[in-house]
Amino acid sequence: MTPNHLSPSELGTKDYWDTTYTHDLTTHAQTPSHTGTTWFADARASQKTLSHLLSLKPPLSPTTTSFLDLGTGNGEMLFLLRSEGGFTGPMLGIDYSTASVELAERIAVQRGFGASEIRFREWDILGREWEEGEEGVWDVVLDKGTFDAVSLSAETDAIGRKVCEGYEGRVLSMVKKGGRFLVTSCNWTEEELRAWFEGKGEGDAHELGTFEWEGTVGYPSFQFGGQTGQSVSGVCFRRI
């Protein structure tokens, strides 16, 4: 059963993120060491995501594995994959905020990454179709907080659904057969993420297959009122 929807928030609006990344751009221009907000930095989510990817069996190829980062923000996840993960294959970060893409491109230049090493593009994954030759070609698709933001949007799609309901199908269409989708969230538990993404393949995505659970990224847990929980959840799915 699909979990109940979250109440809409300004964090689910494009205006909020345009304002955020425009501020980060201005601050970065004045203080180059400021690279903007990195989602879930306090939980070391980027490092834990990298560690999980490096632990997969059989191992991912360091030279050919392709990565697509959804809602790339300041591009930090892709920089980490290249500098510390040793991955040198195709990498693309997309975001619907023009300011986000500009910030990520500036930081890439600052860190010495060429445009051929890591690409960034303005792209609304729920509002635009992929260009021919780019759909279903990615070995690993990453989402670190983007589904959280989508879940907080009040927008609906062409058939009247909350936009978060069509997210699984769009992501599924991006992942190569046998590829992975790794999602990190502070709004949804592991069980809820599995309910959103696992074994659905509904509607337009039906012919593409489905996602199956492959593993969980470990985060510290806490206990309150006899219940155990986590402030951040990470789940890795495989497209079958």
Describe this structure in words.
The protein has 240 residues and is α/β, with parallel strands linked by helices. The protein is 30% helix and 22% strand. The protein contains 7 helices and 9 strands. It has helices at 14-30, 45-55, 76-83, 98-110, 146-151, 167-174, 190-197; strands at residues 67-70, 91-95, 119-122, 138-144, 175-185, 211-217, 221-224, 227-230, 233-239. Helix 1 (14-30) packs parallel to helix 4. The longest helix has 17 residues, at 14-30.
How many individual β-strands? 9
Low-pLDDT windows of residues: none
Number of distinct helices: 7
Q: List the secondary-structure elements in sequence, H or E.
A: HHEHEHEEHHEHEEEE
Report the principal-axis shape: globular
* Order of the strands making up the biggest sheet: 3-2-1-4-5-9-6
Radius of gyration: 17 Å
Helix content: 25-40%
Main sheet summary: 7 strands, mixed
Helices and strands: which structural class? alpha/beta
Element layout with pairings:
Elements lengths: L13 H17 L14 H11 L11 E4 L5 H8 L7 E5 L2 H13 L8 E4 L15 E7 L1 H6 L15 H8 E11 L4 H8 L13 E7 L3 E4 L2 E4 L2 E7 L1
Parallel strand pairs: 1-2, 1-4, 2-3, 4-5
Antiparallel strand pairs: 5-9, 6-9, 7-8
Helix pairs in contact: 1-4
